[in-house]
């Protein structure tokens, strides 16, 4: 019987019950893919991150939703760095994570404890607003963008908060997405103390609505960073939680900033 270390962390959160939950499991070596997927399904949070130490001092990192392995996950990367810095005694200034599809990602911790992640900026292009998407979302956006996920821009934050999309209809849709299905972000300028208010739905990845999504905010930065020409203070308006995410477009990279807090520590028994 194997006993594996297990941590649950609220990422993009300054206190418990905010941001997005991630499970982080440090391993000596990756288990078979089917086992990693089964553990993530059992954990039943947006993502489970598995980290394995490398000889060069970095870490190999993989992310699984309850339904699939994903190519990029911001909040579980933040949670993994928080675990290493805050509880596992990492003494350096920067943690390097090597990933399967997103290359090397780095995370630093500032003097006040806030983390900064360095991610690749995604390629995005403006497209025509799809009638099918507008009907599925229950409201018509003023702009649409294609990228890793579909991005729909609305006029004001109130529209974002009130959206009630048809998630069953969304789940198989592939319009405006690279290598995904059923992954749609919605955003609007402004909000309560924010530059951007958004929400993110991913039923195609087994997540009806995600509370805080770093990979989505890479797209937000790619679209809105140049438009507003400044670092963005973003609010992801998941009902009942909410998350503050800093996003800054820096050439072909995106800087994502946020806090994290550990809420559960234990073991997973196989």
- Helix fraction by DSSP (H/I, runs of at least 4): 10-25%
Compute the number of strand runs.
18
From the 3D structure, determine the CATH topology of the largest domain: Diaminopimelate Epimerase, Chain A, domain 1
Please tell me the CATH architecture of the largest domain by its name: Roll
SSE ordering = EEHEEEHEEEEHEEHHEEEHEEEE
Overview in brief:
With 270 residues, the chain is of the alpha+beta class. The protein has helices at residues 33-43, 74-86, 131-137, 157-162, 167-170, 214-228, and strands spanning 3-11, 20-26, 47-53, 59-64, 69-70, 94-98, 104-109, 115-120, 125-127, 143-146, 150-153, 184-189, 196-202, 207-210, 232-236, 243-250, 253-258, 260-269.
């Amino acid at each position: 019987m194997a006993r594996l270390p297990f941590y649950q962390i609220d990422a993009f959160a300054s206190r418990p019950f905010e941001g997005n939950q991630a499970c982080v499991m440090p391993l000596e070596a990756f288990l078979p893919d089917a086992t990693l997927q089964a553990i993530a399904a059992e954990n039943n949070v947006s993502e489970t991150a598995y980290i394995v130490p490398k000889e060069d001092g970095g870490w190999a990192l993989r992310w699984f939703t309850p339904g699939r392995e994903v190519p990029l996950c911001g909040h579980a990367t933040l949670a993994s760095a928080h675990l290493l810095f805050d509880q596992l005694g990492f003494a350096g200034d920067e943690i390097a994570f090597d990933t399967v599809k997103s290359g090397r990602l780095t995370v630093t911790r500032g003097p006040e404890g806030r983390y900064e992640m360095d991610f690749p900026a995604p390629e995005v292009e403006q497209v025509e607003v799809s009638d099918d998407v507008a009907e599925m979302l229950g409201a018509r956006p003023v702009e649409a963008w294609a990228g890793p996920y579909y991005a729909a821009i609305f006029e004001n934050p109130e529209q974002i908060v009130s959206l009630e999309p048809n998630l069953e209809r969304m789940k198989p849709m592939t319009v405006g997405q690279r290598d995904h299905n059923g992954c749609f972000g919605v955003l609007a300028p402004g909000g309560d103390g924010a530059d951007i208010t958004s929400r993110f739905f991913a039923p195609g990845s087994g997540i009806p609505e995600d509370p805080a999504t770093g990979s989505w905010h890479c797209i937000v930065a790619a679209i809105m960073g140049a438009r507003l020409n400044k670092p963005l203070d973003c609010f992801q308006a998941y009902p009942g939680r909410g998350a503050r995410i800093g996003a800054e477009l820096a050439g072909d990279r995106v800087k994502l900033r946020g806090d994290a807090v550990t809420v559960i520590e234990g073991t997973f028994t196989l």
